[in-house]
Amino acid sequence: MKILVCISKTPDTTAKIAFTEGNTKFDENGVQWIINPYDEWYSLVRAIELKEKDASVTIHLVTVGGADTEPIIRKALALGGDEAIRVNNTSNDSLVVAQEIAAIAKEGAYDLVLTGKETIDYNSASIGSMLCALLDHNFVSSAVKLEIAGNTATITREIEGGEETCETALPVIISCQKGMAEQRIPNMRGIMAARTKPLKVVEASITTATTSIKNFDLPPAKSGVKLVDAGNMDELVRLLKEEAKVI
Amino acid sequence: MVLIYIDQAEQEIKKASFEAVSYGAALAKQLGTNAEALLLGTVKDNVADLGKYGASKVHQVSNDALNHFDARVNATVISEAAKTLGATVVVFAHNVNGKAVAPAVAVKLGAGIVTGACALPKTDAGFIVTKTVFSGKAFASIQIDTPIKVISINQNSFGAIVSEGNAEVSPLAITVPSSNLKITSVDKIQGEVPLTEANLVVSGGRGLKGPENWGILLDLAKALGASTACSRPVSDSDWRPHHEHVGQTGLQIAPNLYIAIGISGAIQHLAGVNRSKTIVVINKDPEAPFFKAADYGVVGDAFEVVPALTAAILKSKG
Ligand SMILES: Cc1cc2nc3c(=O)[nH]c(=O)nc-3n(C[C@H](O)[C@H](O)[C@H](O)COP(=O)(O)OP(=O)(O)OC[C@H]3O[C@@H](n4cnc5c(N)ncnc54)[C@H](O)[C@@H]3O)c2cc1C
Ligand SMILES: Nc1ncnc2c1ncn2[C@@H]1O[C@H](COP(=O)(O)O)[C@@H](O)[C@H]1O
């Protein structure tokens, strides 16, 4: 079985969110970059677990981004990918990214394409669904569980207020979230091995974006917390009723 | 024409779709066109009632095979319908199914898409949609450069607007591709409002010390008719079920009221709840970062404050 894991780079979850150039660009100053948590903790680790159970599994990683994504890809290789492909395209238009990934996915004829549920910077939650249309494969989103037996995938996904389990034949595209696997830390052996694993760079082929970011804004600052005395919960109830009008 | 996709599960229209119709209707008015809804499958609801939210028509593809959501099948049917009907904008709720299908529809229509929109687009020059980014820590205004546009709207960011009206329901014939995805089980948490749909949420953190102490929180939730949530360490320690975990890596919610009890307010927790309309923080540490994001705060011991709040609520209800 061949698995393609989509890896994206995002600012660390504690990064200060600020903008430059007249609020048109994210301020990358001092920002630590990490593998998008959904990609690292859930889709990649689940792929590694499948490989640990069945040595014939191969895991390829794909990232669409500039050379600055290579430390991220090396870390993903250290966790357990076999080979990586970087498509040298820095567009942040989801459709451009999805088309680049689709081209790689078609060429490699993967049985399983895994993405994260969403990136934690632009929160698009789009790539998996776009791949579904571009590859015409089944797509299961927000998956919390994945088992493979022969040519059949059994997938549990989150639905509002519960979970739903389905079966489908491979190939399938799955977007992963919490529940899939547990976070891992790369070990020394993995880090050493990652240095020599193949990382192929492919030139960008898609250039036409369908969207463009005009500007960013920060939410208006909260006007400040109104403190209520711990001994006066009647007052809090009154405020919630009469001022906030939420109960 | 603005076409709004009506999401259903187990033959019931999802709450988020009513809000999507209200949004689509407001957008249609702004563009000087009409808002029409698209329903796949059959539902128990009175479909004509979608008119109350502003849809002039409901196009229904009444094929029972469509009662089970399959992203690939639904994307095909929705995009064929949008083409047949000549939709210029297709609107989705940014709920579980909306997220799964809207981007695929955009691909099939050659349309630009903005997911997680939180306001009506600016359409005086171009078509610019504002969405939340960085997990609610900022907004981005994104221009869609294609003739057809797809938008999915964040839950509880626009509101469902109800007035008078009856939509004309008309059958729509679209060839439905066969699904090769077999649903084998559906497990619903009984009797609870799904967290992402809840108006009121009471949430607990490590400050409650252990699962045996959750009774005071559950009593408060019951008095309010609220759903319950928790911070990540709480679900990681199995004090509470995983589906209650909110935050960066859990559910992102935007209820009208979020009461945080014994939660410090780490940035990753806030990422899941910062779109709540009103935030109440109960914490014994006046320096807890959560107070900076709160509307109302109570500095005190949860084990005393929470039962007192429950009593005050019950008293106010008489
Ligand atoms: C990549 C990443 C992703 C993450 N994702 C999430 C996420 O999705 N969701 C999430 O929640 N966290 C997430 N975290 C973890 C987050 O950083 C915090 O560690 C976590 O939110 C803390 O949980 P807590 O507030 O319950 O516990 P603590 O930080 O331990 O806070 C407990 C609070 O309770 C108060 N307290 C103690 N006793 C009482 C009492 N008797 N009465 C009242 N108050 C009391 C304390 O003053 C304190 O403020 C993530 C972390 C990382 C690195
Ligand atoms: N530039 C990228 N390169 C590779 N994979 C990506 C990229 N952007 C997004 N993805 C994948 O798609 C998922 C969803 O991202 P998004 O649709 O951008 O929110 C991520 O979790 C990744 O798995």
Overview of this protein structure:
The complex is a heterodimer of chains A (247) and B (318). The longest helix of chain A is centred in the first third of the chain and has 17 residues, at 37-53. Chain A is of the alpha/beta class. Chain A is built from six helices and 15 strands. Chain A starts with a strand and ends with a helix. The radius of gyration of chain A is 21 Å and the shape is globular. By secondary structure, chain B is of the alpha/beta class. Chain B folds into two domains: 2-171, HUPs (Rossmann fold); 200-316, 3-Layer(aba) Sandwich (Rossmann fold), CATH 3.40.50. In chain B, the strands form four sheets. Chain B has a seven-stranded parallel β-sheet, with helices on both faces. Chain B has a five-stranded parallel β-sheet with strand order 14-13-15-16-17. In chain B, helix 2 crosses helix 3. The model of chain B has no long low-confidence stretch (mean pLDDT 96). Chains A and B meet through helix 1, helix 3, helix 4, strand 9 and strand 10 of A and helix 2, helix 3, strand 7, strand 8 and strand 9 of B. Adenosine monophosphate binds at residues 6-8, 36, 38-39, 62-65, 94, 97, 101, 115-116, 118-119, 122, 124-127 of chain A.
